[in-house]
Amino acid sequence: MPPEIISLPLSSCFARKSFGNIGDCQSGPAEVVVDELLLRDRLLGEWELKEIRQAGASNQELILATVISTKTGKPARSVYQEVKSGPATWGGLLQSAVIDTKNMLKEISGLCSRH
Description:
The protein has about 120 residues and is mainly α. Helix content is about 65%, strand content about 0%. The protein is globular, with a radius of gyration of 15 Å.
């Protein structure tokens, strides 16, 4: 990744060799990269990202919640909570949002190109 693309939270985490939640470097580098991409592509706002991370979402859960949220218009945190606290499943929510799970990369790329 060219240095000019790396944001301040990400570059400071790499420089210190300690990784964290967006801005404070307490989680791994993958979390920082996922958070940065979601913010950069405006798929989530900072507040919504912080809320869903504090609720315990893994990278996979965060990505799924964001894809479903973008397709359905529901807040990502609500989508995440539906699965974590209720009878909903990721597969069921993906199916009801008419998301092609066999082509998730294409689905995600399509979301990013719209923003």
